[in-house]
Write the structure tokens for this entry.
Amino acid sequence: MSIPATIWLSMWSAGEHPTDDDFAAVRTCEAVAGVEIWTEHPGAEWQIEAAARHGLQVGIHLPFHDLNPVSDDPVVAERALQRNREWLHCLARSGGVHAVMHGGYAASAADREAKLPRLVEFTSTLHAEANELGIELMLENLIPDKLGYTHIMASNLAEWAQLVGEIGCGAVLDTGHSAASGIALADVFATLGSTVRAIHLSDNDGARDLHLLPGDGNDVTADLAGILSGIGYDGVITYEISPLHYCLNDVLTHIASEASR
Ligand SMILES: [Zn+2]
């Protein structure tokens, strides 16, 4: 993508068990400055250390499996806070720079309004602690599951903007999630503007979260470069590409070719 943005790669693109050679391959691709690690993946702590050791900037997806920040059960909610806090400290030890709140807020849609303040409180606490550690915390837009139970919050633009505004954190735009939720990229930037500090870049068919390389689906990011150039975007763009469809080398080749355009 020929726009003046810093390009990162989600290490998920190398599968759930990336090797030291995979990190070396990413480092060799000069177009990639950093990587995002999914803390749910086995060996995530080693991955964070490996990324830093290879001279890559590093960020994380905060964990949510078995953790629900908006739980009615105070023990579950406290455990969720503690695990997220531990990952922030783990990231800080390797000099990491950003952390993404990536959903998992489980609540029935009927309870949504009641649970939103709880999500604001939880994320505001983490945001303040992340700031102390020199880490930028950001909230990603999501696709609700078909039961209307998990990932329901921050799945429409008004709610996402409200949450980000009340928490005072940055936003992560996931282009696959916005396409599958029917949210136009132009509307995202018209509403959130420079609050969008990072982008998870992938393509899909407008319905499923396929995490394809740009252009391999409906080209849902076709107008992104123009929008970003227009606003002078200076955040991060993280290619978040599925290892089910590509190997790491395919993804790195694509990124290098886009960077040289
Ligand atoms: Zn994402």
